[in-house]
Amino acid sequence: MFKNTNKIRIIVFLPNFTLGGAAESLVKLIRFLPKKKFSILIISLGKNSYKKMLLNMGCDIIEINYKKTFFSIISLRRIFKNEINKKYKKTILLSNIHYANIVSILSTLFLKNIKIILTERSSLSELHLTNNFYKIIKNKIIF
């Protein structure tokens, strides 16, 4: 029924998929994944600067129209549920920026059959630098 039953679905969530940094690292990783084994879905908030290149590499792309990552939780959860219900061998969520990691965890709470890989690119000492109450709370949660 589904042609992807032997593939592993990798969902990459990077809210700000603009040129440089984290996006460049993810594009390099995706470039070397074998297409016969993996199916890639990229989720970003707003415009994805690498969209054309990623489409040429065979990736699926979803651009969610939210300005704040926190407000995308419900939409992300809907997408994750939909992807889990597809007949892939495994579903893996990859997130690599601290605030996106938190949203990824909240979006997948109580969902079964999804593996989560979270990486942190920032120094932990950076999380102790604060200049307002909102940032203090945010950094404590991330830490």
Would you mind describing this structure in some detail?
It is a single chain. The chain has 143 residues and is an alpha/beta fold. The chain has helices at residues 21-31, 51-56, 73-85, 98-108, 133-142; strands at residues 8-13, 38-45, 60-64, 90-95, 115-118. The protein has five helices and five strands. Strands 3-2-1-4-5 form a five-stranded parallel beta sheet. Strand 1 (8-13), helix 1 (21-31) and strand 2 form a beta-alpha-beta unit. The longest helix has 13 residues, at 73-85. The chain is globular.
Per CATH, the class reads Alpha Beta
Which regions have little confidence, pLDDT < 50, spanning 5+ residues?
Answer: none
**Helix fraction?**
25-40%
CATH superfamily: HUPs
**In CATH terms, what is the fold-level topology?**
Rossmann fold
Q: Taking strands numbered 1, 2, ... along the chain, how are they ordered across the largest sheet?
A: 3-2-1-4-5
| Structural class label | alpha/beta
Largest sheet: 5 strands, parallel
Q: Which shape, going by the Cα principal axes? A: globular
* Percent range for β-strand residues: 15-25%
Gyration radius over CA: 16 Å
Please, how many helices?
Answer: 5
The overall strand count is: 5
One letter per element, helices H and strands E, the order comes to EHEHEHEHEH
* CATH architecture term: 3-Layer(aba) Sandwich
Quaternary status of these chains?
A: single chain
Provide mean pLDDT, rounded: 87
